[in-house]
Amino acid sequence: MSAEAAVALPTLDWAQARSRVYEAGRAAMPEPVDLPLAEADGQTLAAPLSTLTDLPAFPTSSVDGWAVRGAGPWRIVGRVLAGGTPPPLTGDDTAVEIATGAMLPDGAAGVLRIEESTRTAEGLVAGTLRPAPEWRAPGEEARAGEELLPAGTPVDPGVIGLAASCGYDTLPVRRAPRAALIIFGDELLTSGRPGAGRVRDSLGPAVPGWLRRYGCAITATDLVGPVADTLEAHVDALRRGLAEADLVCTTGGTMNGPVDHLHPALRELGAEYVVNTVAVRPGFPMLLARVVGADGRARFVAGLPGNPQSAIVATVSLVAPLLAGLQGRAMPTLPQVTLAEPVTGRGDHTHLALVRVDPARNTAHPVRHVGSAMLRGLAQADGFAVIAPGTRGEPGDRVPVVPLPLLPGERVLGGTA
């Protein structure tokens, strides 16, 4: 289907649009690669992470103390440090000094904590073993071959540490998609104060941060614009972006005004729309198109509206599920919150209403200053409450919320839908 034909696509329901772009991303997933552990942070597991050995692989002391055999008092016959393989304890009432993490000798009945031991006048070790073992048994954390994490898990330092403890040197991963951002609109200012009919570009500085939070790789060199308001400049910018990136996000030009050249530029590039407009407010004139390169690999163009809040609505609606699909991650689930105040509906469109969430009560409170061109409300919000078409939100209603993208370690809103 050509981009020209795709213009006639019907406006999609918001939930349908999310599902469609996610499946488009899944269909275009790149082949996995093996990366050294030190390079895997920020990527996505392409296969389940299973243990290569029992965890722990051998019995280890969990404290500094004495590994003992017999009822005691115990005669000291040696010392065991981490990293060594100790000889067995064979004599009754014998002990070896043992360090935390060291391998427990065969024949040891238990470990006596160093701080709970005493020495007799004869130099023997005395004390009472605790009822609970002070050592870790092989396989206590996991058995060899046990699946610890499924494919699609984002790789973070915790995952890397777990993989190392299992004996991995490399991980099979799907690389973070590379993104580019093209700012359309040569009337925009890129520095200084707005005035004299010109507004400051707020999306160029902001959108890369959202994309990184969704798992993209994007640098300052991947930001282009503002691009001149000509078809030739639009086509050139898109072609250059698609040559390097898996996803090119554009801002502005998603309508059909006198200087909106995005649709004609997509036709020029032979693009195929996945989604062309979504029944959601704000953010209605958003799109996602697919461009197949000479190498046969699909790249994507996400058309974000020029109004700042609408552009972020398009990012959470289309870009987030697309990137999840491209990385082999699960479709983002939507937490549930309870509305603390009424939220208006938007007729036959889904309304994404900016809210602040009280984490203690899991209640959502609408914020002010939420016009399509405003960013004040967005800067104070945790996400968008989803008000279904033909409804309005009433206090006490449980509704889904689209969280704004988080950095690792930041709190997650609510419970899953």
Automatic annotation (TrEMBL):
Recorded family membership: Belongs to the MoeA family.
Cofactor(s) the protein requires to work: Mg(2+)
Could you say which enzyme class this protein belongs to? transferase
Q: Supply the SMART domains for this chain.
A: MoCF_biosynth
What Pfam families has UniProt attached to this entry?
MoCF_biosynth (PF00994), MoeA_C (PF03454), MoeA_N (PF03453)
Question: Record's GO cellular component, any one?
Answer: cytosol
So what EC number does this one have?
Answer: 2.10.1.1
- What pathway or pathways are given for this protein in its record? Cofactor biosynthesis; molybdopterin biosynthesis
- What's its catalytic activity? adenylyl-molybdopterin + molybdate = Mo-molybdopterin + AMP + H(+)
* Domain MoaB/Mog intervals: 180-325
Summarize the protein's role: Catalyzes the insertion of molybdate into adenylated molybdopterin with the concomitant release of AMP.
Q: Name one GO molecular function term.
A: metal ion binding
Q: Does the keyword Cell membrane apply?
A: no
GO BP annotation list = Mo-molybdopterin cofactor biosynthetic process
Does the keyword field hold Magnesium? yes
Q: Which InterPro entries match?
A: MoaB/Mog-like_dom_sf, MoaB/Mog_dom, MoeA-like, MoeA_C_domain_IV, MoeA_C_domain_IV_sf, MoeA_linker/N, MoeA_linker/N_sf
**Domain of life of the native organism:** Bacteria
Q: Look up and give the organism this protein is from.
A: Plantactinospora soyae
Keyword terms, alphabetized: Magnesium, Metal-binding, Molybdenum, Molybdenum cofactor biosynthesis, Transferase
Can you say what this protein is called?
Answer: Molybdopterin molybdenumtransferase
